[in-house]
Design goal:
alpha/beta; 2 domains; 5-stranded parallel sheet; 11 helices
């Protein structure tokens, strides 16, 4: 088998591909432009892709037998075209739950507890100049007693809900699929969740039910000063409306995903007046060392199963 990885850098420079090298001829590219895909997949049996598009054109101009997606989302592959040519498509799920949940709260704590601000205050020598033992210029707030809304109660959303509850928050949720129920938390409509939440955390996939789920009208229903977090997918929330609400409603925004990635240089959230209300990370919540190691292990298993006819 000839196995070609199109975007190895998306798995980190420390990714260990030795197990793949043992399965056949293995070729790895750091990244691949769409215009390069067909040429690089010439004579390939298996392609590994994280974000590189495997379009109908790519499928019709190659002889792929398997598409191994090194992620959970499958929207970068034309699944109908693959099925028409009897190409096996496998993704990897469940590897990043702990990582995403941890990053969700790490980001929330940064917003609520201002850790970076207070650390800088000490490191730059300001505390040493103080006449009193403490410094309270940037107020910190608690999760305890807050109304905590979760959009999407899959594995990640459920874990976030459980931890928020452990901190003493009043947790409610809205299931975007209608398939997830949990008697430990109260299920409400999206409208109700938007109106009541002090903290709203999104952990849903991007699909026909969730695209543009939270637009300008929905954001307008949120409390002034509330926190909106998106650790699901870009495209679920209207980012232009978010930027407007940061200044007009004092909305606080925490994002690990954007509709277009990498982030545009002129993104509206980079130009808000209340910049202290915005925390953005470059799609890293999934990517703990442990999660990426597990991802590669599951990726290898998928390819081994295919080769062995499972």
């Amino acid at each position: 088998m000839k196995i070609v990885c199109l975007d190895a850098d998306t798995l980190g420079v420390d990714a260990d591909f030795s197990a793949l090298e043992a399965l056949g001829e293995f070729i790895s590219y750091k990244n691949t432009k769409n215009s390069e895909t067909i040429e690089r997949l010439k004579n390939a049996d298996i392609v590994i892709t994280n974000k590189v598009l495997i379009t109908k054109e790519v499928i019709e101009n190659t002889n792929l037998k398997m598409i191994a997606i090194s992620a959970t989302g499958m929207n970068n592959v034309d699944l109908k075209a693959a099925a028409a040519k009897n190409i096996t498509v496998k993704n990897v799920a469940g590897y990043s739950t702990n990582s995403v949940v941890q990053q969700t709260f790490a980001s929330l704590f940064e917003m609520l507890n201002k850790v970076s601000y207070y650390s800088s205050y000490c490191k730059n020598g300001e505390w040493a100049k103080s006449e009193i033992f403490t410094h309270l210029s940037s107020p910190i707030t608690e999760i305890f007693g807050k109304e905590f809304g979760v959009v999407g109660l899959g594995a990640i959303g459920k874990n976030v809900a459980e931890i928020a509850s452990a901190f003493g928050a009043n947790v409610r949720y809205y299931s975007t699929s209608g398939m997830h129920e949990d008697d430990n938390f109260i299920s409400v409509s999206l409208d109700s969740l938007l109106k009541t939440s002090d903290i709203l955390s999104i952990h849903a996939p991007l699909n026909e039910r969730t695209k543009n789920l939270i637009g300008e009208n929905e954001i307008a229903k949120m409390k002034d000063g509330a926190i909106l977090m998106n650790f699901g997918r870009g495209g679920i929330v209207d980012e232009n409306a978010l930027a407007k609400a940061v200044d007009e409603k004092n909305l606080h925004v925490i994002l690990d995903v954007l509709e277009i990635e990498p982030m545009k240089e002129n993104h509206p959230l980079l130009n808000v007046k209340n910049g202290q209300n915005v925390l953005i990370t470059p799609h890293i919540a999934w990517a703990s060392v442990e999660a990426r190691k597990k991802l590669v292990e599951l990726l290898v298993k998928n390819i081994k199963d295919f080769i062995n006819g499972k």
